[in-house]
Amino acid sequence: MSGDRKIFPDLESLARAAAESIAAAAGAVPANGTMSIALSGGDTPAALYRLLAGEYRERIPWQRTHFFWGDERWVPHDSPKSNYRMARETLLDPLGIPAANIHPIPTDLPDPETAALAYEEELRLHFKAPFPTFDILLLGMGDDGHTASLFPGIAALSERRRGVVVTQSPVEPATRITLTFPALERSRRTIFLIAGEKKRPIISMMFEQPEESRARFPAAMLSPAGELTWMLDREAYDAE
Q1: What CATH number is given to the structural domain containing 192?
Q2: Residue 219: what pLDDT?
Q3: Burial degree of 30 (CB within 10 A; 0-12, 13-18, 19+)
Q4: Which of 13, 145, 160, 205 has the fewest CB atoms within 10 Å, i.e. the most exposed one?
Q5: How far apart are CA 210 and CA 128, in angstroms?
Q6: What is the tens place of the pLDDT at every residue in 133-164?
Q7: 62, part of any domain
Q8: Starting from the edge strand earliest in sequence, which strands make up the sheet with 175-179, in order?
Q9: Count of domains observed in the chain
Q10: Tens digits of per-residue pLDDT, 30-75?
Q11: 89 assigned to some structural domain
């Protein structure tokens, strides 16, 4: 697998390394510029978000940072299943991020397809391009090798014209809205945050059998144009 591979003894040290990487990226932002981050859901990024909102709150120009999401479940924003809600509670609210800087996938619209089209248009307007270029893209990986809401075997894996589509997950809540590969791969820095022993079989195969993995697992299919870093704890992968 391509990219820089970093292995940490536990989730806490993984989250701290990710926070340092984000702080370093923020240091390169011009004084009058903005930074864009695409957030991921799940337990692993939640540890990172709490650290960013605490110890790192003074090291990053949060008031000049715009937040987006790589995917979302088709649930209300106040649902416990919402990726937006998790980020709001752990990161955005504690930092007092201005509402104008927060760009959630709009699950309050009449149906998922309308929401996907609306988010695609919001990305197009913000980045002034057909597809976004995030300064930082945070991604996770499921036990089946999916990333964002791009699941093995689905038609959206070959989508190249749309930046945001509706997909179906094998687990509830089934309906998802996700960025496609063209919308994810332009990011300047992509960081996979992967922790837990349930991820070990897929991760081991991805690193040891990369060609076969690229044909099976969406996380292995991603080909970022910018920097790619895999941050893993020892439960997920230990090269020794």
Answers
A1: 3.40.50.1360
A2: 97
A3: exposed
A4: 160
A5: 35
A6: 999 999 999 999 999 999 999 999 999 999 99
A7: yes
A8: 71-73, 175-179, 164-168
A9: 1
A10: 878 899 999 999 888 999 999 999 999 999 999 999 999 999 999 9
A11: yes
